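Entry 12.
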Amino acid sequence: MRGKKRVDLDNISEEKLLETRLCELDISIEGTPLEGCVNQLYKELSDKGIVFHPPCYLADEWLCPDGEPVIGIAFFLAHPRLKKLEQKMMLEAEGAERDHCMRLMRHEAGHAVNYAYFLHRRKKWRELFGPFSAEYGDSYKYRPYSKSFVRHLEEWYAQYHPDEDFAETFAVWLDPGSGWRERYKGWKALGKLEYVDRLMGEIAGKHPKKAKGDKYWDITKLRSTLNSYYRKKRRQYAFQYADFHDFSLKSIFREKEAGKKRKKAYRLIRENRKRIMANAAAWTGEKKYVISRLLRNLIDRAKELGLEAGPDEPADLAEVTAYVTAQIMNYIYTGRFKRRK
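Predicted 3D structure (tokens):
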């Protein structure tokens, strides 16, 4: 039998790397900073009396398969070269910073513990969080100022689905530095946290009803190339429009005027692209790739229209930033951008 093809991630060219199949990547959790994060998660669980430690493996993204008490960790975090490629292709690498990695670990652990002990079958669980069988939508509307949900991951993720609400609540409860009793004092979400606290006390020291699960999307079994992986991933966030933004762009900028030399609108947006993207990402919590693609469309269209900035460039930039932020919020709420007419 032929041995597994080994890839030298430190020296392979990017072109060859993109041609490599995911299952050919010679990576693992052991011996990387991820191992420290897994060990920290297990310690936090043990400190709370939870004897079940969800098996962790490298997957194509962060996940806990539905009903399976396992944790899939995004493979690109297992090697600096892959992390760098992810940042280049998607403008960020989810979980790259240790603090963010631990937040994701605690969230996925919430799912795994839920599935391991069948907690979602309990009547009180359903009363507090909602029906576990509820459909996952392509998008969801959330209330940014609601005090009925904890705030842990971006995009007010607890409001997406009852299962996510529990996982987020569990993550806050598990975090030894969250100070949840004080932080959520007076919030309706405190009732959920106190329920999780009581519930974990009930299962403390007890073995799970389901200790093993199928490791779906395990990196060792995926035969698609990195090139195909990123084509598919980027396509999920790709939006192409022709005249979609024309009305808004013409409202912010102006047509070329004879005898007046002003900065091209597309150059103004392009030169300030990173700042606009950072501001929009900070306010909306949306992935930078989505925002970047929107900005690219604005730049291309402003160039095609031949628009120019006005005499007050900071004011134009403020309007562009507001427009981008509003469009991203529309996308988060409805799953699509909204055309102005």
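Annotation: The chain has a mean pLDDT of 90. The beta strands are 56-59, 71-74.
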